[in-house]
Amino acid sequence: MATKTKAAVRSGSGKGGRRPPVKVKRGSDVPLLPIAVAGILLAFAIGVIIYIVVNNPKPTPQPAVAAGIPCDHLEHSTVHYHAAVQIIYAGTVHPIAPNIGITGDPASPTCYYWLHVHAGNQNTIHIEAPATQTFTLGQFFAVWSTWSQAKGDPAQPLDATHISTFTLTPDQTVKVYIDLQDGKGPQPYTGDPSAIVLKSHEVISLVISPPDTPPPAFTFASGL
After folding, report:
1. R_g of the chain, CA atoms, integer Å
2. Nearest by Cα to 63 from 2, 114, 124
3. Are 158 and 191 in contact (CB under 8 A)?
4. For residue 83, which of 157, 17, 135 has the smallest C-alpha distance?
5. pLDDT per residue as tens, the chain (224 positions)
6. What DSSP assignment string belongs to 69-119?
7. At residue 115, what are phi and psi to the nearest 5 degrees?
8. How deeply is 67 buried, as exposed, middle or buried, from its count of CB atoms within 10 A (0-12, 13-18, 19+)?
9. Residue 161 CB contacts under 8 Å (≥ 6 apart), including other chains
10. What is the DSSP letter of 65?
């Protein structure tokens, strides 16, 4: 019988020899560097997106233009005068709302319509515009209505059957008086109230009658 050579025995190349073990890749052998780099890049991209969103917010919608009158960020001084309006119902003057035409927090407004009312000057319309032009009582009511509805409050119409939130009944009428502070006192006005031109120190009284109550005197605040 033939015998294996010593070389064959040592090398294990014979039939009875063992094969070298096969190496099996373990999870620890997965390359970590590319994964780490991808994670860093992803985090950086998310950070950039967040920065862009925070520093570039959506623009705040501007208040609507009312009867051709915009709402500007600052009060104008090129044209600056004051008129007054009184709404008289059941013989009593009902003050108009404070801060009409002033949007945002009254302590730090975001904008002013050219026709507006400051809380400290009751029933007084501040006419503050960048250039000389004619303004009417109808435009003021349009500003008032737009401003009111933007806050979720009722419209403030001025027409044959409505004065602000007052709706006239069939037996009621509106009588209008204008006092130009010229010593003549309140004078009856028979035209369309919305067409009344606002003038410096003019007092417009809208009397819902009956009763036909004579308009009370109005005094502008000191400095106006």
Report:
1. 41
2. 114
3. no
4. 135
5. 444 444 444 444 444 556 666 555 555 555 667 777 667 777 776 766 666 555 655 545 668 999 999 999 999 999 999 999 999 999 999 999 999 999 999 899 999 999 999 999 999 999 999 999 999 999 999 999 999 999 999 999 999 999 999 999 999 999 999 999 999 999 999 999 999 999 999 999 999 999 999 999 999 999 99
6. B-EESS---SEEEEEEEEEEETTEEEPPPTTTTEEEETTEEEEEESEE--T
7. -115, 115
8. middle
9. 167, 168
10. P
End-to-end Cα spacing for the chain: 134
Q: Is the distance from CB of 112 to CB of 75 less than 8 angstroms?
A: yes
CB 147 within 8 A of CB 112: no
Residue with tokens 């027409």: 159
Domain chopping of the chain, boundaries:
71-209
Nearest to 96, CA basis, from 67, 117, 65: 117
